[in-house]
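Protein in question reproduced for absentees:

***
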Amino acid sequence: MNELKVFSGTAHPELSRAVTSYLGIPLGKCEVFDFSNGNTFARIMENVRSRDVFVIQPFCNPVNHNIMEFLIMLDAFKRSSAGRITAVVPYYAYGRTDKKDQPRVPITARLLADLLSVAGANRLLTVDLHAAQIQGFFNIPADELTALNLLGGYFKKKNLDNPVIVATDIGITKRARDLAAILNAPLAIMEKRRVGNADRTETLNVIGDVKGKTAITVDDEIDTGGSLMSTVNTLVGCGAREVYSCCTHPVFSGPCLERINKSPVKEVVVTNTIPLTDQPHEKVTVLSIASLLGEAIHRIHTGKSVGALFEQQS
C-alpha cells in the first residue's frame, strides 16, 4: 500500500491515527496552523505526487474554522499533484440545511459540496448524512457509510429485555427501521414539530406501543439534547420501562451532557465521528468507527466494492 497516503486535519487527529493503525501505515506528515491574524496555513511535508491521498476531517465545532482548514488542505494537495484526493468527512455539517424550507434561505449542504469539489476533492467518504439526498449534491463519487450495524451489534450484546426501537422523528424512520431489523424489534415513531429556527422541539405523540418495553431511541446526531430529553420524558410518561438512546454523531453542544446526566435515560451510545468534550459524560458510551473508515479506505484504494462492505455488515 505504498501509494496510499492518509492525512489528518486538526479537528480529530485521534480518529485519524486509529484509522492508519487499522491500515498498518503511518499517518501522513503535514503542517497546519493559524497565523496571528487568523489566516490558516497548510503545508504537505512529504511527496504526494501521483499518490492516492485520503484526508480526514469531521466538520465539528468550531465548524467554519474546520471547514476552511480542510478546504485549504485540499487545495495544497491539489497543487502538490496528488493523483486522487478523497475527502473523508466522518461528520458532514450543515446537513440540516438541505432544502429551502423557508423563503429566502440558502441550501448550505449543497454549497459545501461545491466548495469541496472546487478545492480539489475527487471523491467523498462520509458517515450517516442527515439527509440521504445530500449524496446527490456532489458531482464527484460520494460514498456514505453507516454506523447502524456497529450500534446494533452493541445493543445485541446487551440482550435488553423486550426492546422497541423509537425513531426520534418521522424523518429518521428508515434508519430506525433498519436498526429494528438488526435487533428483530418492533418500531415506534415520535411525531414532533420543530419551533421555528430555535434549537427546541415540541413533541406531539408516540406512534406505536412502548408501554412496559425497553425503548431505544435512534437519531443521526444529538445536538443540544433538548429534543432527546423531550423524547425520553414522553416515552417514560407513556410507560416505557427503560430508555436507551443512540446516534452516530455526538455534537453535544451547549448544556447537552448536563441534560443527559440529569435525565432518566439509562445510556447514550454514540460513535467517535466527533471528539467528545471534556465535560463529564458518565452515561455516554463511545464506539470507534476507525475500522469501518479504514476498511472503506482500503477498498476504495484497491478498487474493491464499498457496497460489499455494507453486505458484510448486515
Observations:
- The mean pLDDT is 93.
- The two ends are 28 Å apart (CA to CA).
- The chain has two domains: 4-147+290-313, 148-287.
- The first strand starts at residue 4 and ends at 8.
